[in-house]
Amino acid sequence: MLYLKYSNFGWSSNFLAFKINIPPMPRTKEVLTKRYYTISEVAEMFEVSNSLIRFWDQEFDILKPHKTRKGDRRFTPENIKQFETIYHLVKEKEFTLNGARKEIHRKKKYQRKKLEMLQKMKKLKGFLKSLKTEL
Predict the structure, then answer these.
(1) Among 2, 7, 40, 86, which is most buried by a count of CB atoms within 10 Å?
(2) What are the two backbone dihedrals, phi and then psi, of residue 21, each rounded to the nearest 5 degrees?
(3) Where are the domains of the chain?
(4) Is 126 exposed, middle or buried (0-12, 13-18, 19+ CB in 10 A)?
C-alpha cells in the first residue's frame, strides 16, 4: 500500500492523502520446475535469511516443508506458494505475525464457505434441470 501526500502549501498537517492499492508482484522470478528446493534457494528467491524461513516455519501452521533424515528442509512448489502468501502479508502488507495468522485462517474459512455454496448451487441447478425436463 502506498500513501501519497499532497499539499499546496508544502509540508503541513493539512494534506490530502490518496490511498493506492498496488497488487503484489510475484516474488518468485522463475517458473518452479524442480520437485524440491533447499532453504537456501527459497531464501534467495525472496531475498530473506535462512533463519527467517526457519522461524516462519515454526510460527505458521500452513507452512510444512518436507524434512530429510538429517533435518534439512525441502520445499515443494506448493510450500513456496504458501511462503509467498506469508511473505506478502508480513513484509508487503505489514501484518503482525498474529494478524497474518488470523488473515490466513479467515481466508481458509471463506474458501470453505464458498466451496459449500458452490456445491449447494450445483445441487440446486441439477434439481431445476430435472424439474424442467419433467414439465
Answers:
(1) 86
(2) -90, 120
(3) 28-134
(4) exposed
Question: 98 near 59, Cβ under 8 Å?
Answer: no
pLDDT tens for each residue of 65-106: 999 999 999 999 999 999 999 999 999 999 999 999 999 999
Q: Which helix (H) or strand (E) holds 96?
A: none
Rounded to two decimals, the pTM is: 0.68
Cα separation, 96 vs 99, in Å, equals 5
Whole-number Å distance between alpha carbons of 51 and 63: 15
Three cell numbers written together for 3: 500513501
To 5 degrees, how large is the angle CA 26–CA 29–CA 32?
95
Cell numbers representing residue 16 in the block: 490530502
Q: Using DSSP, state whether 50 is helix, strand or coil.
A: helix
